[in-house]
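Recap from last week: sequence in, structure out.
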Amino acid sequence: MVADLKPKTFRFPGGCYVEGDYLKYAFRWKDTVGAWEERLGHYNDIWKYWTDDEFGYFEGLQLSEDLGAYPIWVFNNGISHHYEINTSAISPFVQEALDGIEFARGSPESKWGSLRASMGHPKSFDLRYVGVGNEDCGKHNYQGNYLEFYKAIKDRYPDIQIISNCDGSQYPLNHPADLYDFHIYTNSKDMFSQYTKFDKAPRSGPKAYVSEYAVWKEDAGNGSLYAAVAEAAFLIGLEKNIDVVNMVAYAPLFVNTNDKYWIPDAIVFNTYQNYGTPSYWLQQFFIDSNGAIFLNSTLYNSSSSIVQYTNSQDGKNYLKVKIVPKRASLENASNDMNVELAPYSVTSFDLLI
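Predicted structure tokens:
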């Protein structure tokens, strides 16, 4: 089901999971590589379960490669929900991040690249993006810690794109970054209204990576069409601001039916079956947006967009039109057209050009 979405990026190992409620329970990549039977596992004190770490750092990189997606590795920056490492003592965490990049990209003869090679992958992984922490911008030591990571990584790997936790959608960042992380969890009404969120974002500086978005709580339940329609309006707004929004991802991706600690999620599974929520199926409308040409258009009383893309199956060019109406009828339609769209709906159609 994930492959069917044709993702271009895969962010892992997560958000809060990276931090931990307390640092001793944070995800540490070195404990998740090597032979499966030798991994000790750790308690995930955020979502309250024991993880055996058999899906570790290596497996995240491997899955990204299998999907044809760029891995986006998020690492701990010395901050958990309840504790922060002072910037003066952050160097071991910085070294751990550098070692992790070497594991992914280093030659088979390097210290950590040789471990990757021994696990059956002598070729380097195509790691181009790293996220420094998760939702930590407001923490006291974040910016000091962040700058230490930024300087060290850019010194050794100047091509790697570094993602800041600080929101740059209203004001320019006060520190260097290639991208900034933007998260939004809200109700359907507010999510719909957010389709103009990036209309007035700074047009220079780092672009946004909307790495977590979802309608949740009361009007989302375990996943609803109402929530998905609101998310469609928001995504169309991102599409119209492609000059300042670089990437987007729904979150969370998976939930086990036996442990629904957070709902809704895109894919629901257990040991023998799975299904996609409406939010999952909605994303099918946006697959062709990757690499498409955005065409400037305005359809009043709606969130709408038009993109031109090349169909990979027939090689022909199409216009994809997506509309989420505010009202059922569209005013000022041509005399030869009778346009009536159902309220709380998403309409998408292709025109051969």
